[in-house]
Amino acid sequence: MYEYLYLIKDGKKIVKISEYYHANYCELKNMIIGRDLRSLGKTHWGFFIEIKDTFTF
After folding, report:
1. Is the pTM of this model over 0.70?
2. Beta strands in 1-57 (DSSP E)
3. Once rounded to an integer, what is the mean pLDDT over residues 7-34?
4. C-alpha angle 55/56/57, rounded to 5°?
5. Which phi and psi (to 5°) does residue 13 adopt?
6. Is 51 helix (H, G, I), strand (E, B) or coil?
7. How far is CA 20 from CA 3, 16, 36, in A?
């Protein structure tokens, strides 16, 4: 399992940061969390949701 962070603007995903793809994920996450951004919380994903997300980003 890997963690993803999405940056969303006006209801659209503009950036996807993945623990799988980014070697410096923890550093990026800490920088983002340190900003004054609103968190939408955690979401639990399933296989089909992941496939849909891959093709609709």
Report:
1. no
2. 4-9, 12-18
3. 89
4. 100
5. -70, 125
6. helix
7. 8, 11, 25
